[in-house]
Structures are given as structure tokens and as C-alpha cells.
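Assess this:
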Amino acid sequence: MNKRERFLAAVRGEDIDRPPVTAWVHFLSDHLSGEQTAALHRCFVEAYDWDVVKVMNDYRYPIPASVQTLEDPASLRAFGPLSLDEACFAEQLKCLATLRAALGPDIALIDTGFDPYQQVLRNVGFDQAEFLWRHPDETLRALNTVAENTCRYIAASKAQGVEAFFLSINGAIREGFPRGSSQQVYETFQRPFELQLLKAAEGMVRILHVHGIGLDLGRVLDYPCEVISVSDRLPGNPTLAELRKITAKCLMGGIDESKFQEHNLPAIAREVDDALIQAGRCKLILAPGCTLVSFTPKRSLTFLRDYTRAL
């Protein structure tokens, strides 16, 4: 099988030679051109020969120049329509096109995106969440605008032939945990817009990255997606075995991103073996539960790649 075939077979639950494996890091590339960002990804992919390219999207959604906090509802009214010429969209699309031309058609690209609620707070500050709740009408208008802009971007990514869309959401994090939300906040400000983006990505392989700890998977099990990605090794989160019991979808995970850079090589091997015991070889993409730290040792990544070749 070539890499693209292996990835799609895992997603569909078809016969497979071995589970695909991949990993990713943030490249701190918000200031770079799409071509420069693509070069970083290409070096990383070719150095470790990953089975699928998880393309980071570090071009953060643009915040209106007048906005520093969200305390004043006028700050939310400042969010407006954006064209695909906006740098955050245009440079990511250039990155994807450059990677496709450089790597060819035999490896799948996974683009990355974030739910609108998270996109606003990632750039203004997560400490501003309470003001979103205080100004619900303005917040809903702003989130709808961000969602519509993002959906246009997803359509453009799909039109370029990108195979998959990795949507990172915080909506399943329960209140009381970092970046968590109450059921009311989730149902009002997160779920509708998360579903809107997944609908826009229909026809791609939709990977739902259920980010964080303290997760309530019941909030998102009905989401339309083909793959579920969870930090299954983090305390309190569902394991791969538990996920197998509650969903028939392809799973993405098995590697503890919080400890990978600390593990010795036999520990990495045991974690891979355990992931296969829990989830089986079918409908599994071996990957970290979330982003690896940028100082992860080359030795560890090389071992992960080499060890998984013989699975």
C-alpha cells in the first residue's frame, strides 16, 4: 500500500498492511510565508517518513485592530466578513498547495482548524471567555461571522484536493477543567458552530480532535466525522479500549504526548504495543493525543517510526 491508501484504509476499516503512524509539532510559523511553512513541514515529514502529513495551521484568525479585550460588546461587533486573500487563509492555502506539489499524490494531507469560539479566544486571550457569556447577542453574531469565513476557507482547502480536515474543539471539556465550559455555554456558543464547520468539510475525512482533559464525550459522539482523536493517555480521559466500546469510528491516538519526550525507547515500544492491544490493528491511526513539544528528541521520533514499520 502507498501511504494515502494506508491512511484511507484505516479510516474506512478496510484490510491494511499495518496501521499508519504520524506525529506533529508546532513550527511557530505565523510570521512566515506559506512556502516557508511548507518547507518546514516537508523537512519534518521526510526526516521521519510519516504515513500522513498533519499540516499545522499556526496562522491565527485575525482579530480586528481595535480589539484588545472583549469587555466592551463593541469589540465583538468589530468582527466582519473576510476574503480568502486574508493572510491567515491565503498563506495556509499556499502551504497546502506547495506540500501537495512537493510530496505528490501518494500521501494524504490533513489540514487543521479550530472551532470559532476557540479561534476568538486563542488570539484575544482565554481569560476573556466570561465577556462572551455576558454579551450573548454580540457573541453569537461574531461567532457566526467567524464560522462563515472559516467555512469559505474549508471549501477552498477541499477544492485543492486536501484529503482530511482535523477540527480541534474544546466543546467537550467540562466546566471546572482548563478551558472547560458549562452545558449551557457549550450548547449556545460551541456546538452549533462546530457542527457548521464539520458540515462544510463533508466529503473530506473529518478528524474530530476532542481536545483537553475532563472530557464529556457524550457531547460530541453524534458529531458527523470519520475519525475521533483524543488524548487517550491523559488522566481521566477515555482510553482507546473505552473509546472502542462507545464508537465504531476510526480512532487516532495511542501515544502520550505529555511524556513522549521523557520516555526511553522500550517505553515507547510498550505504548505502541498497548495501543494495538486496546484498539486492534483496524480503524487505528497511531499518533500522539495532541501536539508533541518542539524539543522532542530526534532519537525518540526515529524509533517510533522504525518500530512501527514492522507492526
In short: Residues 3-308 form a domain with the TIM Barrel fold (CATH 3.20.20.210).
